[in-house]
Amino acid sequence: MKTELIENLDFTEKDYNEKTAGEDIASFNEFIDAIIAFVEQSGGTLEDAIIMADDAYYQL
Q: Does the model's pTM come out above 0.90?
């Protein structure tokens, strides 16, 4: 799921890193892993993970 999630995001790892530079925030991989863990625990789909990750990124 991780590869598919990353391929379908509205942002890239570079975008994430630029937006969070200097912040005490999870790395890109930690961010993606946390989204996947939450979605898998709640029985969600890849689409749910994409929406959640995009929403969380834009709220940063």
A: yes
